[in-house]
Every structure is written in structure tokens, then in C-alpha cells.
Write a structure and sequence with these properties.
The protein has 1 helix and 12 strands, in the order ββββββββββββα. The chain is mainly β.
């Protein structure tokens, strides 16, 4: 593909890419409202930690709804083949629970997914030699309840 030599009509993704529809991994349940990641196969899975290998998950956003399924139902692909169902995942700023490691000085910094409902300020447990937790997003604010507002836009630059 060559560089442009004239104007180009460049398409824009509907709603700026805020909602993405992803195939759900085989034998997987994703709960609505939970943090969703893609695995090395490109399929949606609940955000989770690893224990012995570097975490290869990429957190995408919040589980919204099952595509071509029953509204307001969790994505239950268990049993099921990869891609048998799809889930819509929304980017945005959403509130999640934390492990009490996130305080005011962490605002503006990345946070990491412990699981599909909890974030933490560090990328691994104390003493771990590999990154166990995938980048969830940027800490925007801490609610009076102690829960954390997480910005799910632009996770990749935070992982650098």
C-alpha cells in the first residue's frame, strides 16, 4: 500500500468504537457489568489474573449485552464453542471495586484488573516475577464509597 497522492474518504467506526462486539471464548461465562478482556485467540473472557505466566489479556471494557440473545442476560457460553455467542463490550468510564491499594495519589495512573469486578494499583502480587494483572485503564477518581472510576479508553499506552 502506498502513501496518499490525493484526498481519501476515510470511514469512521460507528459511535467512535465505543461499543465492540466480540466472540465469547469456549466454555466461558461473562457477567453483565463485568470487565471484559480478549485472550490470545481474540475471544472475549472475563478479566482475570494469572499466577505463573505473564498476563496476555487485553482489557476492553464493560460487558453490556449478549448479541442476538436474550436482553439483560449474562453471556453464558458454557458449554459452547468459541464464537457460538457474542457480547457487546462498551468503552467509557465505569466504577469498579478495588483492593484498597488505590488512593488519591494514584489518580491519573493505570490500574490493573484483579478479576472482572476488582482493580488494583500494581501489576502483580508482592514477590511475583511476572505481570499477573492486565491493564484495566486509567484511575479517573475515587468515589466516596472507595470504589474507583476507571477510564477504559487508551489502555495500550498505559501498558508501556
Amino acid at each position: 500500500m502506498a502513501a496518499l497522492t490525493s484526498s481519501r474518504n476515510t470511514p469512521e467506526m460507528a459511535d467512535g468504537g465505543r461499543i465492540r462486539v466480540l466472540n465469547v471464548e469456549a466454555n466461558t461465562t461473562i457477567y453483565l457489568g463485568g470487565m471484559v478482556a480478549v485472550n490470545s485467540n481474540g475471544n472475549a473472557v472475563p478479566a482475570s489474573a494469572t499466577t505463573t505466566t505473564a498476563n496476555a489479556l487485553k482489557v476492553i471494557g464493560r460487558a453490556e449485552y449478549v448479541v442476538n440473545g436474550i436482553p439483560a442476560q449474562n453471556a453464558m457460553n458454557n458449554p459452547g464453542a468459541a464464537g457460538a455467542i457474542q457480547i457487546a463490550v462498551r468503552k467509557g468510564v465505569f466504577m469498579y471495586s478495588q483492593d484498597n491499594s488505590i488512593s488519591a495519589p494514584v489518580v491519573g495512573s493505570p490500574c490493573f484488573a484483579l478479576d472482572d469486578n476488582n482493580v488494583t494499583a500494581t501489576d502483580r502480587a508482592s514477590g511475583a516475577s511476572v505481570q499477573q494483572y492486565a491493564v484495566a485503564g486509567e484511575v479517573v477518581a475515587i468515589d466516596a464509597s472507595g470504589e474507583v472510576w476507571v477510564n477504559f479508553w487508551n489502555q495500550a499506552p498505559l501498558a508501556v
